Amino acid sequence: MGILNAILLLAVLVCAVGVSLTKNLLSAVIIFMTQSLVMCIIWILLESPDLAITEAAVGAGVTSMLMFAALKRIHALDDKERDDDDEE
Fold first, then answer.
1. Could you tell me if 60 and 33 are in contact, meaning their C-beta atoms sit under 8 angstroms apart?
2. Alpha-carbon distance 39 to 31, whole Å?
3. Maximum Cα–Cα distance for the chain, whole Å?
4. Do 35 and 60 contact (CB within 8 A), yes or no?
5. How far apart are CA 69 and CA 75, in angstroms?
6. Those residues with Cβ within 8 angstroms of residue 79's Cβ, 6 or more apart along the chain or in another chain
7. Predicted structure pTM score
8. Residues 52-86: pLDDT tens digits?
9. Quick check: 35 and 16 in contact, CB under 8 A?
10. CA 57 to CA 70: how far, in whole Å?
């Protein structure tokens, strides 16, 4: 069980550093979602199901959807598609 905890904590740290270092906003949101889901698993292992459900619903669900909506609103997702079309 200790190895699993260490792996999950390492995953949270890697996600936190990854969000800070990535230049692509869409990748940052996806990494943030991953970190939130790993935290959900950690809460389950700590026998705190109420916090796990809240983390999954708010962290991975609502917050991520708001971030996707913000990226769409500022046309950050459209710019990626245009850059891909220009390269072809």
1. yes
2. 12
3. 51
4. no
5. 10
6. none
7. 0.78
8. 999 999 988 899 899 989 888 888 777 555 555 55
9. yes
10. 18
